[in-house]
Write a structure and sequence with these properties.
Distance between the termini: 30 Å
Largest sheet: 8 strands, parallel, barrel
Radius of gyration: 21 Å
Number of helices: 13
Number of strands: 10
Strand order of the largest sheet: 1-2-3-6-7-8-9-10
Length: 352
């Protein structure tokens, strides 16, 4: 198979002497924030990790909220404050991982988006990006987080507008005003139609504008803070799907001021969703990362899945090492995602 041969050749070339690349940095993104004890910086350093990313929001629990005080949404408990104390003065930066618009506990119908179902629209527990109040609330939320004693923020992958989303009264009115066309959901979702093209352009512009506003607001309150963005795995190889499925536009994202693009290279998820066999999964993984590296260079951070999403069990070491070794040598950052403190030994062995 030509693609398999090319992948093998690239692996050999990237390992040749004389290819000079910066030392790779390794990070960990914790999947929870309710551990019995904080994973202190000394433990991370000993495991070869140079950054900690802590989850500071809940999105699926109706009784949920945030894990820091924002003055905007309910606080479940001040978990971030505890971690800040543990990382104060440390050489290991502490980042906060924050959702943008999907919150199951959101109960204000005026702020919620609406999703088209084919027969009509229904409210979804996501902030409406076309409602000025909804977008302002998102920007204020991230600005409040930037005021915390942290070095960076990772924006969750819900800063999107999925195919059926955006059909609030605000969204429809914005479409008509921008395009001069009638806001007919069926036409707006019909592939290749003038309505669909105008709707896709409007949605990607709204997501891109919101992203830039978030970055600007965070930097304004804490100059020097770094902002990372979770990116779906389809974006590097099929940017047209990213635009259509998520309203993610690479050029707009690049112009937003984001410091790091965290590509969610979750191999088990990709293998299942794309119905790939193991050989095809490895080839796609490598090609995807090569394309991402061309797009983002030193701004690329590859997220490697450490635990199975369904079982929550750690993925076997041999499997993790196989995919880690497929990461191109030019990638400067790898983030071990959705991990626990108990995974530090496993992670350190992946890097051996």
């Amino acid at each position: 198979m030509p693609g398999t041969f090319l992948c093998s050749l690239l692996l050999i070339l990237s390992a040749l002497p004389g290819a000079s690349f910066p030392a790779r940095r390794h990070e960990i993104q914790f999947r929870r924030n309710d551990y019995a004890g904080i994973a202190l910086p000394s433990r991370l350093s000993a495991a070869g990790l140079s950054k900690a990313i802590l989850r500071v929001f809940s999105d699926d629990e109706k009784a949920g909220g945030l894990y820091f005080a924002s003055g905007l949404f309910p606080v479940v408990r001040p978990a971030l404050a505890s971690w800040q104390k543990g990382y104060a003065g440390s050489a290991v930066p502490l980042w906060a991982w924050m959702g943008a618009r999907k919150f199951a506990w959101l109960d204000d119908d005026g702020l919620r988006d609406r999703e088209w179902t084919g027969d009509g629209s229904r409210a979804v527990a996501k902030l409406d990006l076309f409602n000025p109040q909804g977008r302002e609330l998102i920007v204020k939320l991230f600005a409040a987080l930037a005021r915390q004693d942290i070095q960076g923020i990772l924006i969750q992958d819900d800063l999107t507008l999925l195919q059926g989303e955006g059909f609030s009264s605000w969204g429809r009115a914005s479409f008509t005003r921008a395009s001069g066309l009638e806001a007919d959901p069926r036409r707006m979702l019909k592939r290749g139609s003038a309505h669909q093209r105008a709707w896709e352009d409007l949605k990607t512009a709204r997501v891109g504008e919101t992203l830039k506003q978030i970055v600007d607001a965070c930097v304004a309150v804490r100059p020097g803070i770094e902002i990372g963005l979770n990116v779906h795995y389809e974006a590097p190889l099929t940017p047209e799907r990213a635009r259509s499925w998520y309203a993610f536009d690479i050029d707009l994202a690049n112009a937003s001021g984001v410091d790091l693009f965290y590509l969610m290279a979750y191999h088990r998820q990709m293998r299942t969703e794309m119905k790939l066999d193991e050989s095809g999964s490895r080839l796609y993984f490598r090609r995807m990362l090569e394309a991402a590296l061309r797009l983002w260079g030193e701004k690329l951070a590859v997220k490697l899945q450490v635990r199975d999403w369904k079982s929550s069990e750690p993925i076997p070491l041999d499997e993790l090492k196989t995919y880690y070794d497929l990461i191109p040598a030019g990638v400067e950052r790898v983030c071990f995602a959705a991990a626990d403190p108990d995974d530090l030994e496993l992670i350190s062995r992946i890097m051996e």
